[in-house]
Amino acid sequence: MGNIVFIGLYGSEKSRLGKELSSQLKWSFYDTDAMIEKREGRKLREICELYGENYYLKREEEILKEVTQLENAVIAMGDASPLGPQSLEKLREKGTVVYIKAPLEGIDSKDIRCLGRYGAELKMTLNSLDRIYHQGADVVIESHETPSALETLRRMNLFNEDR
């Protein structure tokens, strides 16, 4: 089956759903933002404030290289993960990419930990990310539906009632 990779904006519940699904499948769970924070010994917002967006994106790229080597894992990617060259393509080669789509309304700069955008520029960035996520995903699920792990599997046609 390969990996199951959740992409989407901060607050779309990628980590919650990923943990639940990995438990159901008895697979390992990886949260790329948590991996960066652990290695850096700092929260993402602090990393971005101290070192900037490019530094954060490089850390995400390093983590992406690692998670694309995994097998039978559930992975929650950071907000900006798809911004790197061929990032989503690499993830799709190793499994199924699921976009957990959160409503763009109501998201402001405090919700986006490292993109450093405000006002109209933030709206353009969010719309760009939404397009990138849509293009790179195998499955799109609306976050307001807050699906359970089993429902997610059903929607992905990966659930076998006989399991």
Radius of gyration from the CA trace? Answer: 15 Å
Number of strands: 5
Class inferred from helices and paired strands: alpha/beta
- Write the CATH architecture name: 3-Layer(aba) Sandwich
Strand order of the largest sheet: 2-3-1-4-5
**Mass-distribution shape:** globular
Number of domains: 1
> What fraction of the residues are assigned to beta strands by DSSP?
5-15%
CATH superfamily: P-loop containing nucleotide triphosphate hydrolases
The DSSP helix count reads 7
CATH structural class: Alpha Beta
- Which spans of ≥5 residues are poorly predicted at pLDDT below 50? 159-163
Order of helices and strands: EHEHHHEHEHEH
Question: What portion of residues is helical?
Answer: 40-55%
Mean pLDDT: 78
What does this structure look like?
There is one protein chain. The protein has helices at 14-25, 32-40, 44-51, 53-67, 87-93, 119-136, 149-155; strands at residues 3-7, 28-31, 73-76, 95-101, 139-142. The protein is α/β, with parallel strands linked by helices and 163 residues long. The chain has a single domain (3-155), classed as Rossmann fold, CATH 3.40.50. The chain has a 5-stranded parallel sheet, sandwiched between helices. Helix 6 (119-136) links the parallel strand 4 and strand 5 (139-142). Helix 1 crosses helix 7 (149-155), helix 2 (32-40) crosses helix 4 and helix 3 (44-51) packs across helix 4. It is globular, with a radius of gyration of 15 Å. It starts with a strand and ends in an 8-residue tail after the last helix. The model is unreliable at 159-163 (pLDDT under 50).
